[in-house]
Write a structure and sequence with these properties.
The complex is a heterodimer of chains A (172) and B (155).
Chain A lengths: L10 H7 E2 L6 H21 L2 H21 L9 H11 L4 H7 L4 H8 L7 H10 L6 H18 L1 H7 L11
Helix pairs in contact in A: 3-4, 7-8
Chain B lengths: L1 E4 L4 E9 L10 H4 L11 E7 L5 E10 L4 E9 L10 E2 L1 H16 L5 E4 L6 H8 L2 E2 L4 E4 H12 L1
The chains are: A mainly alpha (172), B alpha+beta (155).
Amino acid sequence: MSLKRLKNYTTEDIADAMVLPVTLTSKQRKEADRQLSEHRAMRRTEMTEEEKLHFKLFRLKFQLEDYLKEDQYNPQFTFGYFLEQYLQLTNRKKKEFAGDIQIHETLLSSILKNRREPNESFMIRLELHSNNMIPAIDWFKLLEKEKGHQINTNRSLRDKESRFVTHSLQLV
Amino acid sequence: MHITERVTNEDKLVHVRAIEDADFKQITVKRYLFNWKKLEHECKIYKLTLIDSEDVLGLIALIDFPEEERTEIKLLTSSIENIGKEKQYDRIAGCLIAFAGKEAIGKFKNYPALSLVPKTELKQHYIAKYKMIDAGWQLYLEDISLLNVIKQYLS
């Protein structure tokens, strides 16, 4: 499409509202892709470790936020799973990380394996460790989502607890 | 994610979703400037609407290049009433670009990028507005520059 059809608009107006298609010859396309590939490779070599970490953490944050927005429960996405991802990204061994947030390594292992439930202090320490990148409330909501699923699907507990309930409401 | 109504200066929540066949009935060349149906086989097309409406305010067509960990914006347009000084809403294009960037981050594990081939006349505007990186023929967003656009438009 030529810009002539949009002659009543300034280039700024157009750029503000559109990305117009550009047709390249195959030779131009090859050259454009080569330039882009080289430029990206050069930038990657110039990235500092801090910049790489920052980007990776954002990815984890997005993944967690997206999961929290979904209605669906995913058994893979446990508290332990996201915590494990965090440790891997930050390149911290269990012992080091336990030291960073001053908890016993055994407790950290249990949380990673979803055998123990983290408390609020733990989640706040995670927030602080990530320099507020992943807020405690997101860790809390993750735990809540897991617990919500458990309470929703726990039939044996329902059977067990039904013995203690009498005069339940009779509804139409 | 929100756009801003210019008259009232009110922010309105929007979402971006994949286009469905039925949408093409309302996607006319008159209002969206191109024959979007033609792109259907080559690209993934997404629409931006207000959260409580089916009226399409913007469209974006994307092509993935998995071997390069890159998504390219083939075409993007706001609806005709959202182009120019008298437009109804601000931020439509920004939200669509940020959405595309976040999709790229979700798809590509190591160094995801979002690129476009700009019209020469428009190149400097994209660089100024989105801090796109100039790679010659193409512009792109990657790592921190990509995150900044996502933070600006998707939060």
